[in-house]
Design goal:
The chain is mainly alpha-helical and about 160 residues long. It has two domains: about 30 residues; about 120 residues, 10k-s Protein, Hypothetical Protein A, Chain A. About 70% of the residues lie in helices and about 0% in strands. The protein has six helices and no strands. Helix 2 crosses helix 3 and helix 2 crosses helix 4.
């Protein structure tokens, strides 16, 4: 009888833990939803995320935005790098790339209505172009075409 009671109490505790865990996951995921109802994400949103990244004392919401900014820039950067549209020197850090994109967003407010993938790609391609020597995968003549087609696929 006592063993059955212990098992029953253990099962109840496990169920309570599962319910608490599922509730926490739902609450945390709802906090990170996009600002716009239709799912659009533009350069203004990316700039807000950059400001959160650059903040000295970020709130919880700003930490989520900063993480989004870092992941977005890193993702677009990786795609462009794989396509030989940008070629980083060995000593460039991720932080430098983030700052280049953030400074571009800050200095060009009139362009923030553009696609965020374009706003990430333009300053990085300008700062770290691939030369003939290190760009064997895509010929320089076709680079702009491939970048445009990548952006169209993302948009």
């Amino acid at each position: 009888m006592e063993l059955a009671h212990i098992i029953k109490v253990g099962i109840v505790h496990m169920m309570i833990r599962k319910i608490i865990f599922i509730t926490c996951v739902i609450l945390l995921s709802s906090n990170t939803q996009a600002k716009n109802k239709d799912g659009d994400y533009d350069g203004n949103d990316l700039y807000e995320a950059y400001k959160a990244y650059d903040s000295n004392n970020p709130t919880y919401k700003q930490m989520n935005q900063a993480t989004l900014f870092m992941a977005y820039v890193r993702g677009v950067s990786d795609v462009l790098s794989l396509q030989n549209l940008i070629c980083y020197p060995d000593n460039v850090t991720v932080g430098q790339a983030l700052d280049i994109v953030g400074n571009y967003l800050r200095d060009n407010p009139e362009k923030r209505n553009m696609s965020p993938s374009v706003l990430v790609g333009m300053p990085l391609m300008s700062k770290y172009p691939c030369s003939e020597k290190n760009s064997t995968y895509i010929t320089p003549k076709l680079r702009g075409y491939y970048f445009t087609s990548i952006i169209e696929q993302i948009i």
